[in-house]
Design goal:
about 280 residues, mainly beta, Jelly Rolls, eight-stranded antiparallel β-sheet, 2 helices, 18 strands, binds calcium ion
């Protein structure tokens, strides 16, 4: 009798294990953030609050940009979007940006999906104009992933790694293969809403497992694999961390023209399907 007395406990544990296995798989994917701008507000410090989450401003420039504005202009004609505006000026840089997520770990997928429109009152960019960027923590250098207008109305996605960089923690240096690697380009019209989803998985090492996917209007247009981001101690910078922050808004070289951009249904998720705006 003695040897069988634990049998019900063993059976119960086995059932629990099976139940856990069955339930855990679908929970792996998740929408982390959903910035639909409905019921959102912008406080006096230019922080965005949507569905109880605060997206802190990263704005060092309140002279050459306008305060972000909750607009009635949307793709569907209902609800709210977020309007960003940079003004014409000869200042070196213009910045009106908010953080979406900070200290995001490397070696895992995040998908950043949103709708956007460049207003017809905007001048064609004449210098770099970033609308979404991933910046590696602990390095004040250029972004490791940037969605940007490089010149004119060509939207591009560029990445950086140990071969491609332009500025590392105060050292103005260009990588052996150039300042950044372009992996996608698209000609954009003003006054047209577009959908984009950026899949981003930095590795920050030399094993080539970093990956970026660009879905444009529902079509996979770029699927790039390689080294993405910087390893610890790169070029002697001891505080480079294998985490990054995502910023959205406008960050550009100073230009003598207006740039107005609308953003809506910005989702951050662990799969493309969930991040589709
Ligand atoms: Ca909301
Ligand atoms: Ca909306």
């Amino acid at each position: 009798m003695q040897r069988y007395q634990h049998r019900p406990v063993v059976i119960l544990l086995a059932l629990l294990f099976v139940a856990l296995l069955t339930c855990s798989s679908p929970a792996l994917a998740a929408v982390n953030y959903n910035i639909d701008l409905e019921g959102a507000s912008i406080d006096s410090n230019w922080n965005l609050i949507d569905s109880g989450v605060t997206y802190a401003n990263n704005n060092y420039d309140r002279v050459n940009v306008a305060k972000p504005f909750l607009s009635l202009f949307t793709k569907t004609g209902t609800g709210r979007s977020l309007k960003f505006e940079a003004k014409p000026s000869t200042a070196v840089k213009h910045r009106v940006e908010n953080f979406s997520i900070k200290k995001t770990a490397f070696d895992q997928w995040k998908y950043y999906g949103f709708q956007f429109l460049v207003h017809g009152a905007s001048g064609d960019p004449t210098n770099w104009t970033i609308i979404n960027q991933n910046r590696q923590d602990g390095n004040s250098g250029s972004p490791i992933g940037a969605l940007w207008f490089t010149n004119g109305m060509t939207l591009a996605y560029d990445i950086r790694n140990t071969e491609y960089y332009s500025y590392i923690d105060g050292k103005d240096v260009i990588g052996p293969s150039g300042s950044s690697l372009n992996i996608w380009q698209k000609s954009i019209s003003k006054d047209v809403w577009y959908d984009i989803v950026i899949g981003f998985r930095p590795d920050g090492s030399a094993n080539g497992t970093g990956r970026v996917q660009i879905y444009f209007n529902g079509v996979l247009e770029a699927d790039w694999t390689g080294n993405l981001g910087f390893p610890d101690d790169f070029l002697g910078v001891t505080n480079i961390n294998r985490t990054y922050s995502n910023h959205f808004g406008i960050y550009r070289a100073g230009q003598n023209s207006t740039f107005i951009y609308y953003l809506d249904n910005f989702k951050i998720a662990t799969s493309y399907e969930e991040a589709r705006p």
